[in-house]
Design brief:
Number of strands: 2
Bound molecules: protoporphyrin IX containing FE
Strand order of the largest sheet: 1-2
Structural class: mainly alpha
CATH class: Mainly Alpha
Order of helices and strands: EEHHHHHHHHHHHH
Strand content: under 5%
CATH topology: Heme Oxygenase, Chain A
CATH architecture: Up-down Bundle
Length: 245
Amino acid sequence: MHLQRDEVGVLTMTPPVVSAATHVRDRTAELHNRAERHPFQRELISGRLSLTTFAAQLSQLYLVHRQLERHLADHLTATPSIRAVVQGYHFRADLMRSDLEAMGLDADGTPRLPATEALLQEMRRDSESVPARLLGYLYVLEGATNGTRILRPMLLSRYPQLGPDGLASFDPHGTLHPQRWQRFRRDLSGLDWPNEALDGLAQAAAAVFRAVIGIMDMLIGPASGAPRRLAEDPSRLANGVQFAN
Ligand code: HEM
């Protein structure tokens, strides 16, 4: 609560004004910490993770981007909130597909892990019933570039096979990143979000974080507990231990 003087000078308590972007960030801060500190990230940054496992994670995220972008494109004309926030440069599934092809993967042929499948279904339901919630999904995927652009140079030095131009989708905006991210936050916060809609936005964002954590759990084992390295052996990955399709 903030203390402020009303028009006749009396001190009153008012709730703090929190922007939609800050609300979503605060509501998902704990999940961001869990994603960031997941052993998968540690192993990746240290260069100990196999490129196969890394590519397996990226290809699941590709499926999420691809479907979100299809939904956003479907609603771009008719849904004012989506029109107000979404820009052409938010679409980067194509860039991800090229990154994956350079890693030897057919991105569109990727079988879905259950965590991915669950998220895709939730996203489809939201797209049909409350399309504005798609912006909550976009918030996490776009926000993640804050971290991936920092990680990219480290990863390119750990995995020289990727070449100097590898992982372009990790830094899709280059030097324009800060202003584009600020614009995203501002445009999102400039919309009128009734409390219920704000909750829906945060729920959608939380669903993406949970799926990302679920995918990492499935690929190398959960943050605590016995490791289950499903993806270390490409043939097991391709033949699907627990894929959803
Ligand atoms: C090692 C892994 C990661 C690192 C080093 C990292 C780092 C960062 C950094 C530096 C920021 C900017 C914070 C700021 O400017 O206030 C950020 C923001 C963000 N990251 Fe991560 N991150 C990582 C993993 C992830 C993952 C896995 C996701 C989700 C898929 C994610 C989603 C986000 C989001 C949504 C934001 C925006 C927060 C806001 O609203 O300001 N990050 N991250």
